[in-house]
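Database export, one record per block. Field names are fixed; values are copied verbatim from the stored entry.
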Amino acid sequence: MAKRTKADAEKTRTRILASALSLFVKRGYERTTFTDIASRLKMTKGAVYWHFESKEKLLLALVDEMVAKFRRQICDMLPEDGDDGLESLTFADVVDTMVRNATLLIGDAKGTAFFLLVHEQIRWSDASMDKVREELLVNKRFGPWAAFKKAVENDIRDGRARSGVDAVKVASVAVAIWDGLVHSRIAGILQCDLEETLREAFDAVRRSIEA
């Protein structure tokens, strides 16, 4: 009985997160209330509060879920390094991974909804967003930015990139390129092929740092 109750609670939590994401994208984070989320699911507002103490906590849970999914996809696509860990990772490896991930993202309705949410529906200047911003934008766990940085450091070490290259700056530029082009594609602004455009942009970065 306990296992079934725990499973039911997790299923309800998942439904609440899905409903919140849909409403946040449609109405905006600020304008969506727990009553809106509960009504959409034919639940009481108290039931939503039982799972999440506040709307900020709900958003943090949503961010954590989607970032974890994104990170798993990235890590699963990176080449296996055996006992060397990430020591053989190259800039080209991460480019291939991020291009494949972009293709997956634009074909995933939930993923694109979350992408639009964080780009268009949240006021990041609001002090209440500090925790969310830190988790999403300044996350220290291994992810795309860390992968690009490590890859550039490896390329410098192995002679594929110039010794004076700033790996932090290159990683930041590379992630900004990916983010900007994917956003443009989802928003319908980018009219050319996303994969081809990403590869051309990343190739320009590669040429700028190569030895």
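Remark 1: The radius of gyration is 20 Å.
Remark 2: The domain at 55-209 is CATH 1.10.357.10 (Tetracycline Repressor; domain 2).
End of record.
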